[in-house]
Amino acid sequence: EDDYIALLRDTGSMKVEDLAKKHLNVDLTQPEFWENAIALCVKDVEEFLAL
């Protein structure tokens, strides 16, 4: 709960890239982050299609 409150507190004063780095330990400026995110989506779609 405390971590979530800290994230919310910072949303009004930080850029989204800085928020993600500070609170989620991810770098939104790197292609690897987005490639991994898309890979998760592709996996979910493939699983759905297999059903």
Automatic annotation (TrEMBL):
Annotated InterPro entries: OligoPept_F_C
Highest taxon above the source species: Bacteria
Name this protein carries in UniProt: Oligoendopeptidase F
Taxonomic path: Bacteria, Bacillati, Bacillota, Bacilli, Bacillales
